[in-house]
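Q: Hi! Curious about what Acetolactate synthase-1/2/3 large subunit looks like structurally. Here's the sequence.
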Amino acid sequence: MAVSPADRSTGAPRERSTGDWTGVDERSERELLEGHGGDLAVAVARAHGVETMFTLTGAHVFPLYDAAVGGRDRPQPPPMRLVDVRHEATAVFAAEATGKLTRTPGLAVVTAGPGVTNSVSAIAQAYQSGSPLVVLGGRAPSHRWGSGSLQELDHPPLLAPITKRARTVATVSELPSAVDEAFRLAGSRHRGPVFLDIPMDQLYSRTSAEVPLASTAGSAAGDVDHDTLAEVATLLAQSARPVLVLGSDVWLDGAEAAALEVVEELGVPVVTNGMGRGVVPRGHLSLVSRARGVAFGRCDLALVVGTPLDFRLNFGAFGGRDGAPPAQVVHLVDAPDQVASHVDLAASVAGDLTAILTGLVAAWRQVLRPPDWSAWHAELRAAADAAREQDAALLTADTDPIHPARVYGELLPLLDDDAVIIGDGGDFVSFAGRFLSPGAPGCWLDPGPFGCLGAGLGAAIAARIARPSSQVVVLLGDGAAGMSLLDVDTLVRHRLPVLMVVGNNGCWGLEKHPMRMLYGYDVATDLRPGTPYDAIVAALGGAAETVRRPAELGPALRRGFASDVPYLVNVLTDPDAAYPRSTFGI
Ligand SMILES: Cc1ncc(C[n+]2csc(CCOP(=O)(O)OP(=O)(O)O)c2C)c(N)n1
Ligand SMILES: [Mg+2]
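A: Let's find out. The predicted structure is below.
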């Protein structure tokens, strides 16, 4: 029998059965496990496919670490990879990004009180993005509750509005079923974060409890409303100028192949959004994202799949441009509560997006006379070509200081199809959204509708782990960089090389320009010009350089991709090159 970690009261090693399966219940596919609360929680998380725990230390949650590393024996490989970071937000952003990239809920562990409160923005971001995520929080011991223990705070009421469920696990024996339920809930439609806190005395207690052997979680394939899909096919057949919008849930619900089949079979123009980017390969004739303004403004039918009708889609108002009437809108979503209630919809269907999309193809095959959309395609392609022509001038701009678009002109040809592209910033990232399109699905990480700055380093940590052989590039505004750059330390300690590119315009550009526009002046939007972010990275053990001229960009980016340590390219960009915006999303 293995020797356990030292007994905490005596310091002496003791025999343990921790982590040893002592029985298997064939019928329920559950096993009896003896161990402390950490052992039980980690065993359940492992059954759900979790391989990494992101955390920042606190004694309230030590048993979870003890279980992750396999106790004092430290077996190799350990039961779970433990990645310790420099700010709880980074731990949760990393777990969120893991959920988005792997489509298995990510796991973050944070200590009681400030560990949980530091996580709130990242949990809110996961909630608004529908990202599968489980956050386990420490909690002051239950036997002293109300006496003023260190870091005593009742967390679930804080987290209830930004989670699918937030609750306290009262006893260690309840822990396996609570963690099992948390992973099931987080990973099923409509996905999102689940929070549990566990009183310290309970987490450290030992018990024998059944834990699931393997996960049967995830949303089942389901039947969907075929009558409504037949109506949608009819609406499409009657439409002269339809547009299909594919959003993040197409990827998160595993419906990317079915979505591509819709594009191929229907021959409908398509615009992609969020993690829907990459579902339609770059250069596909139906992909008209670059003509998005014309497509949305001139369409007569918008078929929106797997994304809310929020500010990113003009709150669901399509049509109306150049005398076009308002368009009809169809909303196809992964869960009934995702159907937009603020828009007068022509139709909506909720459920398994693969079933919905294959059902739509089947319904379309019943359409007797498919319409001719060739003139509409030609109009959109002309608009996309014109936009690309305009882009070319910016992408090759030879200005001093460097135009941010030139960074992408140099980056684009260096990107592999499966490169993971992470955006964290304002205007610098908006330019990226315009000029970069991923070559494969599941390769684009942005903050989603919550728009929280500071997710970049957490996402980079997650991406390097989830996609060990892909390029990982993080595009950081200089303002955003300040929120998580110290986690280069984590990248270095855990040997996770990624390329970071800072668009260093010395300001909070996305706020500076709007304030000037509204007030004729701006305050609180300036940063120190020319800050050497490369020096910070070098001090933390990475490699870095500053780029001042356009011709230096390509070689610097190549050095960054080739580096075997985290590499930052600090690009001094033009503070006056504002991203041209038609909306501020408010
Ligand atoms: C946590 C957080 N705080 C504030 C904001 C508001 N905000 C949105 S964009 C932006 C400016 C970003 O500046 P920077 O990262 O330097 O990118 P730039 O626009 O200069 O390219 C700010 C402050 C936010 N989205 N998230
Ligand atoms: Mg900036």
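A: A fun detail: The pocket of magnesium ion (ligand 2) is lined by residues 477-479, 505, 507-509 (CB under 6 Å).
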